[in-house]
Design goal:
Layout: H1 9-14, H2 26-41, H3 46-57, H4 71-82, H5 106-115, E1 126-127, H6 129-132, H7 175-186, H8 190-195, H9 199-203, H10 208-211, H11 215-229, H12 238-251, E2 290-291, H13 305-315, E3 320-325, E4 331-336, H14 337-353, E5 356-357, E6 360-361, E7 368-372, H15 378-390, E8 394-398, H16 409-418, E9 423-426, H17 428-433, E10 452-455, E11 479-486, E12 492-498, H18 499-513, E13 520-523, H19 530-542, E14 546-549, H20 552-557, H21 561-569, E15 573-576, H22 578-587, E16 601-604, H23 612-623, E17 633-639, E18 643-647, E19 660-664, H24 665-669, E20 683-687, E21 691-692, E22 697-701, E23 716-721, E24 728-729, H25 733-740, E25 758-766, E26 772-777, E27 781-784, E28 787-790, H26 791-799, E29 807-819, E30 822-831, H27 837-855, E31 859-866, H28 880-889, E32 896-899, H29 901-904, H30 920-929, E33 936-938, H31 954-964, E34 969-974, E35 980-985, H32 986-1001, E36 1009-1013, H33 1018-1030, E37 1033-1037, H34 1045-1058, E38 1061-1066, H35 1068-1074, H36 1077-1082, E39 1090-1093, E40 1114-1121, E41 1127-1133, H37 1134-1148, E42 1155-1159, H38 1165-1178, ...
Parallel strand pairs: 3-14, 7-8, 7-9, 9-10, 13-14, 13-15, 15-16, 16-17, 30-31, 34-43, 36-37, 36-38, 38-39, 42-43, 42-44, 44-45, 45-46, 57-58
Antiparallel strand pairs: 1-59, 2-22, 3-4, 5-6, 11-12, 12-24, 17-18, 18-21, 19-20, 22-23, 23-25, 25-26, 27-28, 29-30, 31-32, 33-49, 34-35, 40-41, 41-51, 47-48, 49-50, 50-52, 52-53, 54-55, 56-57, 58-59
Helix pairs in contact: 2-3, 5-27, 7-11, 13-14, 14-15, 18-19, 22-23, 31-32, 32-33, 37-38, 40-42
């Protein structure tokens, strides 16, 4: 644990004077520490603890001058949090050490840091009930009844009064709630509430301050309440309360405002972190290399390890070599040197002579062999290792793969493959436990080469003949063994160690540790690699030592086992990790008769880790009484590449005393050593790792860039040059050169020496007395904004945040991920099953604050996962790289997440400043000077076409066709089976329309509005023409959905009311529905106008038809709900109606002999025109496919197209999406049913948005196999002011695609880029401009014309523009300029209609039918939809596309803003376990690709995002639903 210092407990709580702590006598402090220990052990209840504690402190409280006596309660309340509950704070005698070297201080430092924070409120994420019940592998989490989720309405912030009322079901929140909030804000006891998370701390706020509730506080409370109500959001909505809280936390900037940003020519560059001019810089001289003592020759030292084995095996065969223990700690087997020697010979002989393939020996000397042995079988491992050495094979020890998906197992497979391993040695028991394939053989693991498994147990090895001798040579530079190492990124490398290096390392260890023949050692470490292998398998054999190997499993069951074995065997040496010392502290109470006096060396293998010091100190505190001498604790530093780098020598060697350094964390983050800074909170206490190994030279070089030597007060990477280190990474020459052949340079640039050095990946410095200090590892280094932080230090800070009872101590991972060109810190911990949501959230917010205070760095994401869910490293611990991988892939499945991008991400580009207005005239001049034409385009001229049937009124056309071609079929409606449901010829349609007209003429006046509420079909068309015949104005309305009246019926009612319809025409079935009981629940059914059903009208006709006096008269009203949720009706005159039909007829070349298929809704826009008007005007036959029928038969539309050999077809995006998703896998089956789409010339998607290229391309690709031409699919574009502006039609060039820079679009600029360039966005032309239409691009603000390829609003002019909005309150004035507006400059005569869409025109190289160059119109998006954020204009679809790409389980996404916060709603198409994975991924992708910080992430079920009939998202409806808390989200995360 990284240690920090601060003054004592009471001083911190009361802060009167530093003398306070001294007022408590040593014995009282001793007793307090005892009490604390009892509490943490669970030997005393909280109540008992507090009672005894106040008794102890009572005599001393008044002595603390000037302190309110009521302070006692506060100390009690917060004691739980303030006093460290670690096991380490039993005080030592006062004179034992200097006070500032105490290592039980970290927790206090953290608490002091937190006390500064005055508990800032953060909105707690809300979670659906079902997500709380998460099962983990070994610990099933019970449904959490204490969680805040039942009643998330009352965010029970700790410290609030217990009476705070949940205000979930009320229409207004209980006023006490607001009072409490205000009171709590003004409470004096905030220090107690801020550090306490014990229930006792909650009541602490009921202090005297609360009775001081004056009128002032009440007034503030009411003002607060008023302020919330005026936001226009229902106060009861807990969503808006939380957002308000979030805004409040964001309003108070914690850090000084950022410096001005660095802006480059490149659109927008991220803020470049300028170095702080005041940051500490190294001031010392250049360091000089540090040399270890020379290696002394040892008399009779064996020439190699096999020589030593042979010597001891023959001269001391009875000598014990290794004792293995069972899971109960009993010795199972002691291997003697004689046994080891004979068993190794047998194995070597068998491997070389008895294994063959095709009569060739399977193995040759120098081949690599995998050693797969479990941690509880050291004997078999040792036999196999030395057997390989005798056979001159190269052992590669690896972990036992338990499942096919072990963390990191695939990487081990790559290592084995690159080493060319074909044989794996294992034990019988282990082989039986390995996963098997169906053949019964060991399964092949993912990424592993094919292996032959050989069991080394006695019955499988052969006795060598008398004359066979293993070849035993002197140590050479050939490879002896390969040790695996996992890098920070998770890749596995094999480090080769030569025979001579192995021997030299044993020699150096023997010297440094003073090993003698026949000594006893207990080894708790993994004997397959690193210190466990070096001490417990290699050096021990060189010195004929006896090793007692303690398996990891036994340590888990009985953490004291290693100490008991030291006692039993009178061991002289023990090799442990600080974790083993910590575990044994927890279990030592019941053991009285243990003596550690035999130990002369307690080697702490991870002594280089900053947390180890606290374990060492605490261990010494407890076991000094049991014979442990302080000087026998020997931390060491090592790395896989350089092997042992330094080790503290045992006391008998006459070395200088151990050193400790108290370093400033701030200095360390700049790689500078500053001792004990003023800022007492953020210091790191480290212990030395002793002296350099004998025969080695050490230097410290800069971490980044050229390896220059560091200055004496600078932290760098330790490099070693010695004969006893690894040779290379097997098969990786490039990496080997970087790490194993570093040449350190002096400041002058001259090399330090001609010997290459090895980088150890340890960060440290050389301290006084030539002691080496290590402050971290390269693997744990996180460089955030140019400052360095160590993952282990951050873990230590998290561990010190009290209370620790919500997470597991040893299960915290810290790593950094790269987001937006900087590292971001992620903390992941395992949550205990019994921790409530709120407790965990409290702990998380405190961890964030503690890390922020102590390290001055923000945490980007803090995630808690259920118990036992993090990937484990082979011997306990967390597999960090695998955890990081899962986090980035969205496979971590956390149960709690807190993201804090607002505090961490400080390098966002500068918000855009709008330029002062540039006038339209100067823009035009600018375009002319730049040689740009004004962006203007038009469709073909209507005047050049002779139209024989040029009628002004569409109803006249129908009468004419009824006479001229009475039996010509116009319409054919299909049902879901694909059968013809109904048809209509010209005469039949005319007759039905006459009946409707006859029914209306007596009842209604000319010009009355009539609502037509029909399902898609002939009835709708006939009643439409009937209305025209009778002189009424029809309004087509989509009928309500019988299963969903509550949401669909109000829309019907609204259109009927807003359109001022005096009558509703409909079918009998719908009429019943409108007046049903269910309808009454949704709307007021008494206020419907007259409802007529047209099912059985009498056959009578009127004598005269109504003739409109002028073509400018209103023909029909077209109502539609826009994507922004606005209901807008437009007026279509008779002349506009016929002009629209004429344009479409010319563009699509429609004649009576043609057939077209339409799969659209017939209620508004182009869908209505194609369904009801065009067939009558042009005389072609329309095959009508109601989109609803596709829900029961997805292939209906395409089958119809194929069956009727249709050349032209129209559909909507929702239909295309249904076909793509529903038929994507069935193309083969459709082909067998003879479905053929080669007849289709154009398939047009009717839309009012930017073309969805990914969908149209998927559609083309999927149905290419069924003959669909890749050129066939195109889109149309229309809007409210003109329902058909562009339509591809049959002639003219194919639609073109351009790629624009998405970042430039945000600044309202178009920058064309190449396909595939970063930030490129493909835009497809929206079809050809219709005949008679003129289009211009105008500046949204100046209303001046823009140049070619400039982004602006699309304005249109033409005969079929609508004549205006039809709204109920006569608000036309507001929108008058939508329909008749003029340019402020240039052509100021033409009257234009504003579409409300951004786009640009671009002249292409293609030629039109007229021979002119073709102008393409590109639609970018609706102006109403755009989000204005950070001064830039974002199109929601771009952010949504990025989000959908970020995880496979995101089915759909919609974004909107709320009070400047970006809210992202995602539909989860997977298990609810994945819901919280999405929070980080969504935040990352939006930051990376759009430079925006997501404020709220809402995870919902599929289908929650509302979509209209055209397949467009209704983002505003979604926003209203979110704020009114109607979405029933799975999870809502509020990013801090």
């Amino acid at each position: 644990m990284a240690e920090r210092t601060s003054s004592g407990l009471l001083t911190m709580m009361l802060e009167p004077t530093p003398a306070v702590a001294m007022t408590l006598p040593a014995e009282v402090r001793e007793k307090l520490a005892e009490l604390e220990l009892e509490l943490s052990e669970g030997d005393i209840t909280q109540k008992g603890y507090e009672k005894k504690r106040s008794k102890l402190l009572a005599p001393y409280i008044p002595q603390i001058q000037g302190v309110d006596p009521s302070i006692d309660n506060r100390i009690q309340a917060s004691s739980q949090a303030v006093l460290p509950s670690s096991k380490h704070n039993r005080s030592r005698a006062a004179n034992a050490r200097d006070e500032r070297f105490r290592s039980d201080i970290h927790t206090e430092a953290v608490q002091a840091a937190l006390a500064k924070y005055k508990e800032r409120k953060m909105p707690m994420p809300s979670k659906r009930r079902s997500v709380l019940v998460q099962s983990s592998v070994e610990a099933c989490t019970p449904p959490d009844t204490s969680s805040a989720s039942e009643d998330e309405g009352s965010l029970r912030w700790q410290g609030r009064l217990a009476t705070s009322t949940p205000y979930q079901g009320h229409s207004h929140p209980a006023v006490e709630h607001w009072f409490n909030r205000v009171i709590q804000g003004s409470s004096t006891s905030s220090s107690a509430s801020s550090t306490s998370s014990h229930t006792g701390g909650r009541s602490a706020t009921n202090s005297s301050a609360h009775q001081a509730l004056n009128a002032n506080a009440a007034a503030t409370a009411l003002a607060d309440l008023m302020a919330h109500t005026q936001l226009g959001v229902p106060v009861s909505s807990r969503v808006s309360n939380k957002i308000q809280q979030l805004l409040n936390t964001l309003k108070r900037p914690k850090r000084p405002p950022l410096r001005e940003f660095f802006v480059d020519d490149f659109e927008e560059l991220l803020d470049v972190q300028q170095p702080d001019p005041n940051q500490p810089r190294p001031e010392g001289q250049q360091m000089s290399p540090l040399e270890g003592e020379p290696l002394r020759g040892i008399t009779n030292w064996p020439a190699s390890l096999p020589v030593a084995l042979q010597r001891w095996g023959t001269t001391h065969p009875k000598s014990p070599c290794l004792t293995a223990l069972d899971n109960a700690g009993k010795p199972v087997y002691t291997l003697t040197y004689g046994k080891l020697w004979t068993r190794c010979q047998k194995l070597a002989y068998t491997l070389l002579n008895k294994l063959s393939s095709r009569n060739e020996p399977l193995l040759m000397p120098g081949d690599r062999v995998a050693l797969v042995f479990p941690n509880n079988d050291p004997v078999m491992f040792m036999v196999a290792f030395y057997g390989c050495l005798l056979a001159e094979l190269v052992p590669v020890p690896i972990e036992v793969p338990l499942t096919r998906k072990d963390a990191g197992s695939q990487q081990i497979g790559f290592l084995l493959g690159s080493c060319g391993v074909t044989l794996a040695l294992t034990t019988d028991a282990c082989q039986k436990g390995l996963p098997k394939a169906q053949t019964g053989e060991v399964a092949t693991f993912k990424g592993w080469p094919r292996l032959l498994w050989f069991v080394t147990d006695g019955k499988h090895v052969a006795k060598p003949p008398k004359d066979w001798q293993p070849s035993i040579r002197e140590a050479s530079n050939d490879i002896a063994y390969i040790e695996y190492k996992t890098s920070k990124e998770g890749s596995t490398m094999g480090i080769t160690v030569s025979h001579s290096a192995m021997l030299a390392h044993c020699h150096a260890l023997t010297e440094a540790c003073g090993y003698t023949e026949g000594e006893t050692m207990t080894n708790v470490l993994d004997f397959k690699r690193e210190a466990g292998l070096w001490h417990g398998v290699l050096t021990s054999v060189m010195n004929r030592m006896h090793v007692i190997s303690i398996p990891y499993f036994l340590m888990k069951v009985n953490p004291l086992s290693w100490i008991q074995k030291v006692h039993t065997y009178k061991a002289r040496v023990a090799v442990v990790k600080s974790r083993d010392m910590h575990w044994s502290l927890l279990a030592q109470r019941d053991q009285k008769n243990i003596s550690l006096s035999s130990l002369r060396m307690l080697i702490v293998a991870d002594g280089a880790n900053p947390w180890s010091i606290s374990s060492c100190d605490a261990f010494l505190n407890v076991f000094q009484a049991r014979g442990l001498r302080p000087e026998v604790i020997c931390p060491c530093a090592s790395s896989s590449e350089a092997m042992t780098v330094a080790i503290r020598r045992p006391p008998e060697m006459g070395v200088p005393p151990p050193g400790k350094a108290v370093l400033s964390m701030g200095g360390l983050s700049h790689s500078v050593i500053r001792v004990d800074s003023e800022e007492k909170l953020s210091v790191l206490t480290v212990q030395d790792v002793g002296q350099v190994m004998p025969g080695a030279v050490i230097c410290v070089v800069r971490v980044e860039g050229t390896p220059y030597l560091c200055q004496t007060d600078e932290v760098g990477e330790i490099c070693v040059s010695s004969k006893n280190s690894g040779l290379a990474y097997y098969g990786l020459p490039g990496m080997t050169k970087n790490i194993f052949e570093t040449v350190p340079l002096k400041a002058s640039g001259a090399p330090l020496s001609d010997r290459p050095f090895i980088r150890t990946s340890l960060l440290g410095f050389v301290g006084p007395d030539n002691l080496l200090f290590v402050v971290g590892k390269m693997d744990g280094l996180m460089v955030v904004s140019g400052r360095r932080h160590n993952a282990d230090d951050v873990v230590a800070t998290a561990l010190a945040v009290e209370p620790m009872k919500f997470v597991y101590r040893g299960r915290i991972a810290v790593f950094s991920v790269s987001v937006l060109h900087d590292e971001r810190i992620v903390v992941v911990a395992e949550q205990r099953p019994d921790a409530s949501e709120e407790d965990s959230f409290q702990w998380m917010s405190r961890v964030l604050q503690a890390i922020d205070s102590i390290h001055q760095v923000g945490v980007y994401c803090l995630a808690l996962v259920p118990a036992n869910m993090l990937p484990k490293a082979p011997l306990g611990g967390i597999h960090i790289s695998e955890t990081k991988q899962r986090f980035l892939e969205g496979a971590l499945h956390p149960c709690n997440v807190l993201m804090c991008p607002h505090t961490c991400v400080t390098n966002l580009p500068k918000p855009r400043q709008k330029q002062p207005e540039v006038g339209p005239a100067s823009m035009i001049v600018g375009n002319l000077v730049a040689g740009k034409r004004i962006a203007q385009a038009c469709g073909r001229d209507l005047g050049q076409f002779e139209d024989n049937d040029q009628f002004l009124y569409i109803q006249d056309v129908l009468q004419w066709r009824a006479q001229a071609t009475p039996d010509h079929p116009l319409f054919l409606v299909l049902n879901s089976k694909g059968a013809v449901a109904s048809t209509a010829s010209c005469l039949q349609l005319h007759k039905r329309a006459e009946r409707v007209a006859a029914a209306l003429m007596g009842r209604l006046n000319t010009g009355d509005h009539v609502a037509l509420v029909y399902p898609p079909g002939i009835d709708l068309i006939a009643t439409f023409y009937g209305c025209l015949y009778a002189g009424c104005v029809p309004v087509t309305v989509r009928p309500p959905h019988p299963q969903n009246l509550a949401t669909t019926l109000p829309t019907v009612k609204m259109i009927v009311e807003v359109s001022k319809s005096v009558c509703i025409l409909t079918t009998q079935a719908i009429m019943k529905l409108l007046k049903s009981k269910d309808a009454a629940a949704a709307v007021d059914i008494k206020s419907w106008p007259t409802v007529l059903d047209t099912d059985d009208l009498p056959r009578k006709k009127n004598n005269q038809m109504y003739k409109p006096p002028t073509p400018e008269m209103l023909a029909y009203l077209d109502f539609s709900v826009s994507t922004t949720g606005i209901l807008a009706g437009v007026k279509m005159s008779h002349s506009a109606t016929s002009a629209l039909c004429r344009s479409i007829k010319l563009q699509c070349e429609l004649y009576p002999s043609r057939q077209i298929a339409i799969c659209l809704d017939p209620y508004c826009g182009l869908g209505f025109a194609l369904w009801c008007l065009c067939s009558v005007y042009s005389g072609h036959q329309s095959i009508l496919v109601p989109p609803l029928e596709l829900e029961s038969n997805v292939s209906l539309w395409l089958t119809a197209v194929s069956q009727y050999k249709v050349r032209i077809t129209f559909c909507s995006y929702s239909v295309m999406e249904m076909c793509t998703k529903g038929l994507g896998t069935q193309t083969e089956a459709l082909r067998l049913r003879n479905l053929n789409l080669s007849c289709v010339r154009t398939c047009m998607v009717v839309a009012e948005e930017r073309p969805r290229m990914s969908l149209t391309q998927s559609f083309s690709k999927i149905f290419k196999d069924l003959g669909l031409s890749p050129r066939a699919v195109s889109t149309t574009f229309g809007c409210r002011v003109n329902v058909a502006i562009c339509l591809q039609g049959t002639a003219g060039p194919d639609p073109t695609t351009v790629y624009v820079d998405m970042r430039a679009l945000r600044h309202d600029r178009v920058r064309l880029v190449e396909k595939g360039s970063p930030h490129s966005l493909p835009l497809m032309e929206s079809g050809k401009i219709l005949p008679g239409m003129k289009v211009i691009i105008a500046n949204t603000e100046t209303k001046g014309p823009l140049g070619d390829s400039h982004l602006g609003e699309i304005w249109v002019s033409g005969p079929h523009n609508a004549t205006g909005y039809y709204t109920v309150y006569g608000e036309e004035a507001l929108h008058a300029d939508h329909f008749n507006t003029k340019l402020s400059f240039g052509d100021t005569q033409t009257v234009w209609a504003r579409t409300g869409y951004l786009g640009f025109l671009r002249r292409t190289e293609l030629t039109d039918a007229s021979g002119e160059r073709h102008d393409a119109l590109y639609v970018v998006g609706s102006l109403d939809e755009t989000l204005e954020l950070r001064g830039m204009r974002y199109h929601p679809i771009d952010i949504e596309t990025s989000v959908i790409r970020s995880h496979k389980s995101i089915a759909e996404c919609a974004v909107f803003t709320w009070t400047n916060l970006l809210v992202v709603v995602v539909e989860l198409e997977g298990s609810e376990q994945e819901a919280l994975d999405l929070v980080a991924l969504v935040t990352n992708v939006v930051l990376e690709e759009h430079y925006l910080i997501v404020g709220v992430v809402v995870v919902v079920d599929p289908g929650v995002i509302p979509i209209n009939s055209r397949g467009e998202k209704q983002r505003m409806h979604l926003r209203d639903g979110f704020l009114a808390d109607q979405l029933d989200p799975i999870y809502v995360a509020y990013n801090m």
